[in-house]
Amino acid sequence: MTPPYRETVFFSGHVQGVGFRYAALQVAREFEVAGKVSNLADGRVELDVEGSRDEVFGYIAAVEERMHGYIRKTERVRSNVPGNHQGFVIG
Predict the structure, then answer these.
(1) Coil, helix or strand for 6?
(2) What is the mean pLDDT of each run of 10 residues along the chain (91 residues)?
(3) Is 39 a catalytic residue?
């Protein structure tokens, strides 16, 4: 069995107070992914997501498309360590 592909994504811009985390949760229901989305103290949103590589890439692209008007910068970090997420939650 192939270990899940995992990425942590940091979104900057006007991403807090605009329903970003709720939108990320809604989009997650359209993909076979697990993870967590959280607001950070510095004003960014952190998205930790895992699944198959194709599902993770598709999910991140869908979140970027849904929230494109609010995102100024996206930073993606690949991780080799599974997050062992159960479902998708807002943190």
Answers:
(1) strand
(2) 88 97 98 97 98 96 97 95 88 92
(3) yes
Q: Residue 78's beta-bridge partner residues?
A: 7
Instruction: Choose, from 21, 44, 53, 78, the residue flagged as catalytic.
Output: 21
Domain boundaries, the chain: 5-90
Fold that domain 5-90 belongs to in CATH: Alpha-Beta Plaits (3.30.70)
Q: Mark whether 44 is an active-site residue.
A: no
pLDDT of residue 57: 97
Separation in Å, CA 58 to CA 14, 28, 62: 22, 10, 6
pLDDT at residue 80, rounded to an integer = 80
d(CA 6, CA 22): 20
How far is residue 61's CA from residue 75's CA, in Å, rounded to a whole number? 13
Residue 25, helix vs strand vs coil = helix
Which of 39, 72, 76, 78 is catalytic? The answer is 39
